Amino acid sequence: MLTALVRAGGAMTAPAFARLAGDVRQGGPSWLAREQPWLTPANAAEVLWYRGLIGRAFATVGGETGDFIFVPSDVLPWLPNATAPTRAQMELPVAPAPSTVHLSSYRLALDAGTLLAFVQNNEVMQDPTGRWRAADLAALNQQLLAPLPEASLKGAAGATGAADGGDRLSLLLTLGQALGWWRTHDGRLRLLATPARSWLQAPAPDQAHALWQAWLASTEWDDLRRVPDLRCEGSGWRNDAVATRRRLLVHLATIRPGVWHRREDLVAAIRRHDPDFQRSDGIYTTWYIRRADESSYLLGFEHWNDVEGALLRFLVSGPLHWLGAFEIGQRADAPQPVDSLRVTSQGAAWMHQKPLTVAAPPAAPIRVEADFSVSVPHSAPAFDRFRVARFTQWEASQPDFRYRITQTALRRSAAAGVTANRVLAFLRYVTQGQLPSNVARALEKLKG
After folding, report:
1. At what angle are helices 204-217 and 168-178 packed, to 10 degrees?
2. Which residues have C-beta within 8 Å of that of residue 92, sequence separation ≥ 6?
3. How far is residue 259's CA from residue 13's CA, in Å, rounded to a whole number?
4. Integer Cα distance of 155 and 141 in angstroms
């Protein structure tokens, strides 16, 4: 127990130490005289306490304030390994590659480009709580790379994250609000040109990184309260989602990128290495959390796997995957839909706060067909796709983005100041001069 305390840097929260070594019984002078607990200590903690090897104080350690058990400074130098009281690095066993792999890449950034075009082209309305109209959510959801099932849309968040949806669409809307992409005027969302254009014109790796940073700093998106199978209730307690992410990422940054691991091995490693990653005081009896289908609360450290474990599983298959930091997979014999994980090269760069050196894939040209359909590869610059969306109607997002030039869409863009002359010049440029003659003639007529 003393070794564990030394490895923790010489101090740990009293509840965390009690889980390892037990509690030191407290009593007044008469109790001490009668019981003489130093003669028959009840546990390892009392052995260390009465030998003067540990102390207790309310203090601030490592940025956390609370009740700590510590090794006195005059004792610590005499203990083994006391010269290097640092945490051991978390290690995960390597796992075989899964049979099914879900890649990350820049998919959420692609959906973010879709979101910006949707807000630009539609009368998106929201109520005072920040919730979108059901029809707007459903229409946007159709255009995403991985649309939600219709039943899931009922829990999708509003533009300020006012609902409890734990899905990609809810995260996307919350991050769009955090990045300042729009404002509300008379209940309608209107894009703000400077932040929206700045993000759209950035390289794809920088776009993904901006979404990552917005998630890291977001107080609107509380990962714990977004875990689908948990319900957080009651007042008088709060969790710090931002501090939890940053503390957890210190450990995730030690995982070598490109190597497959089992998700449950990560959960077990975090429990061994830093179980209090989201409850820095080590107290597990004050948060009122229950499973969605049960009425009893998950109180006590014995429910760590039900709460902290559930949060970790959600982060791996949810935000960390959606944002592009983790790729996930499933082995053929695994009962869970997500069994395996590996850190991506961009995820490793983000967690180490280093620039990403891997370049985005080269952009393929935009194609316009004689039937007025427009195909935009996923690798095309986001700002080019946004401009295409302004004078077209969306049709599909897979395998490429597909739009169609229509009279209705052209009238909409003209009302917003995008003339047929500008559309024609733009299409000639992005198709590298391969614009069908009938499409060019139709736009020429509109110019006149």
Report:
1. 90
2. 255, 261, 265, 266, 269
3. 34
4. 13
In angstroms, the Cα distances linking 403 to 268, 342, 400, 435, 445 are 47, 35, 10, 15, 21
The partner residues of 374 in beta bridges, in order of sequence, read: 368, 403
Q: Which residue has the tokens 């959960």?
A: 267
8 Å CB contact between 343 and 324: no
Contact 433, 439 (CB under 8 A): no
**For residues 415-428, b (16+ Cβ closer than 10 Å) or e, as one string?**
eeebebebbbebbe
CA 427/CA 429 separation, integer angstroms = 5
CA distance 302 to 298: 9
Give the separation between CA 279 and CA 267, rounded to whole angstroms.
16
Along the chain (448 residues), what's the average pLDDT of each consecutive run of 10 residues?
Answer: 74 83 86 85 84 84 78 78 59 93 89 97 87 90 90 57 69 95 92 97 94 96 95 93 96 95 96 92 94 95 97 96 95 82 95 76 86 96 97 96 96 93 95 94 84
Report whether the peptide linkage leading into residue 228 is cis, meaning its omega lies within 30 degrees of zero.
no
**What's the rounded Cα separation, in Å, for the pair 226 and 262?**
23
CB 54, CB 69: distance < 8 Å: yes
Which tokens in the block code for residue 163? 């609902």
Q: Are 339 and 255 in contact (CB under 8 A)?
A: no
- Rounded CA-CA distance 254/256 in Å is 6
H, E, C per residue of the chain: CHHHHHHCCCEEEHHHHHHHHCCCCCCCHHHHHHHCCCCCCCCHHHHHHHCCCCEEEEEEECCEEEEEEECCCCCHHHCCCCCCCCCCCCCCCCCCCCCEEECCCCHHHHHHHHHHHHHHHCCCEECCCCCECHHHHHHHHHHCCCCCCHHHHHHCCCCCCCCCCCCHHHHHHHHHHHCCCEEEECCEEEECHHHHHHHHCCCHHHHHHHHHHHHHHCCCCCHHHHCCCEEEECCCCCCCHHHHHHHHHHHHCCCCCCCCEEHHHHHHHHHHHCCCCCCCCCCCCCCEEEECCCCCECCCHHHHHHHHHHHHHHHHHCHHHHCCCEEEEECCCCCCCCCEEEECHHHHHHHCCCCCCCCCCCCCCCEECCCCEEEECCCCCHHHHHHHHHCEEEEECCCCEEEEECHHHHHHHHHCCCCHHHHHHHHHHHCCCCCCHHHHHHHHHHHC
